[in-house]
Amino acid sequence: MHKPINILIIKPGAMGDLLQMTPVFRALKMNFPEALISVLVGNRASTELFRHNPLIHETIVFDRRGEHRSLSALFRLWQRLRSSHYDMVLNYQRSNLKAWFLASATFPCQVLVYNKARGRIVHAVTNHLEPLVPLGIDAAGVEQRLELFLGDESEKYAQEPFSLSGFTGKTVIALNPGASHPVNRWGVEKFALLADRLAEQLSAKVVIVGGKEDRPLADEIAGMCRSKPLVLTGQTDLLQLGAVLRKCAILVSGDTGPMHMATAVGTRVVALFGAADPARTGPIGPGHRVVQAGGVDCVPCRSRRCTNKDFLRCMEKITVAEVFDAVAAMLAEGN
Fold first, then answer.
1. Considering 93, 111, 257, 262, which has the largest number of Cβ atoms within 10 A of its Cβ?
2. Count of alpha carbons within 13 Å of 207, Cβ hemisphere only?
């Protein structure tokens, strides 16, 4: 088989989706060390995830709702891809016609297509590796570890707020209350109660993280707390968020991008799951804990919309005590 030298991966997904692709990059590079791997991502912010990744040759933006919305802009991107002379494409966006149009810029070349698992439960990381099988890569033999390379400037950023807040040398627990889909969010009142219990019973410092869109949630939680957590929500870029999470002992989060980011920087996670299925999107690696509500028949429904007459019962039934006990047990276990 001809060894691919110039590889294009089409994956315009969210942060968590992209981080769950890192075992794919590693497997390709291990099997084809001379290959140049380029990744087509969905927005400019996502390029930050790979700025320091030594496995990635180039990131290319395909913003179909923004700068590439017009046909002329899309065609210019097509011409750019055409000029790169790729000899293999992995298309992880098989249902998107514009993605296929862009893939056509590479023809004739070898094209491998991702098929999302249907009728079987397999973790997304394993599923992402399956298109590599025709290349002689055994998906089951690939280490399923997520990676995020932060860079010195992001590491330095995280030091200052921790130092100014007296967090240096302390046990720091991060709370991430936001999620793109409401079905993956735990209640703000419960996050506030958890923050106070962590501070008062475990002498832990608490930092609230997330994107700009999560700032109202963070402010609401902080306003309910006696313990005055540090709020960094909306104040970091992606790599700075990764650096903050790396300095924390544990992250408490629903199924969302920062959960996967924490695993990628080596921080353990208490993952709160309701509608989502941890067998598909749960935290990868040792030492993490998944907390799910018991006695809810529809868990996991794997839907992004709750149709239960008792709205979001799956998340509401996760108690503060359950989450606190999980954090306390993990801290007692140590590293």
1. 262
2. 31
